[in-house]
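Progress note, project year one: complex with zinc ion.
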Amino acid sequence: MSSRTNISCLQEAKRVAIFGGTHGNEMSGITLVNMWIQNSAEIERNGLVVKPFISNPRAVEKCTRYIDTDLNRAFTPENLSAPDVEGLPYEVQRAKEINRMFGPKGSSDAYDAIFDLHNTTSNMGSTLILESSTDLFNLQMVHYIKKAMVPHTCSVLLNEHPQLKYSTTRSVAKHPIGLEVGPQPQGVLRSNVFESMRTILKHALDFIELFNSGVEFPPCTVDVFRVQERMDYPRDTNGNITAMVHPHLQDCDWEPLNRGDPMFLTFDGRTVLYEGANTVYPTFINEAAYYEKQQAFMTTCREILAAYAIRKACK
Ligand SMILES: CC(=O)N[C@@H](CC(=O)O)C(=O)O
Ligand SMILES: [Zn+2]
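Model obtained:
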């Protein structure tokens, strides 16, 4: 990087994958990817290899989140280096296959970018998920997408939390990007959600094409929501939930939650208040897939990230 001009010269992004069906019951990504496998005209860009790919075909076939274990938690160093023995959980086998095809994770042979398409039952709207606050390529891309989406909003969730971060399918790529669009029930297609996801992908691929063509992207800032804490439902001693998300919180993803605001409503009608000292921005509120993960919602804090200018490295 030249310090005088503060332009970072980054490697060209030539190989890009679009994953659908990492969770087999999230229908927008599955449908888009199957559509693009049939006809890829819409996702083709100059000088780019774009591969649409169903990441968990057995779960898609059964329309379930996973067969043995959550694929989007399976890309750990232990799993990826496990010997190929019989009897491995299906998703661990699949993680190893995906790592061979699109990785190896952390190596120079890995795909440049992976877009992993997800749907949520929460009212999050269009959300991009980042795993690093220092990936300039992704920050610039997210900035480009947010601008291109105006007047529609596109939120950015940053998960760098040392305990809450997980080993995602997309983490195999040099630049991992999650797309999370909702609300959409599991196993259901909603046209508005489908179209939003499609539009985000279009802008993302446009960005990469422009970057590869040599366009310089000036310094920018990106508003993000940084993952802070996991909030579980109130539970009894058997682990069964004893309360629901409070109606005042339900569907209020990304809206401030202040000390004293209602959070849960117990089955016997009592309101449980939020008692944290600081204002937080809840997200993934009442996500269906998170009951088994002991999570009613996630709290985030707002942050503004700055990104240097970037352009493609000159050879
Ligand atoms: C609802 C859902 O599946 N959300 C994704 C979020 C992500 O891709 O990071 C997950 O928990 O794996
Ligand atoms: Zn998902």
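The mean pLDDT is 97.
The chain has two domains: 7-224+305-312, 231-292.
No further modelling is planned for this target in the current period.
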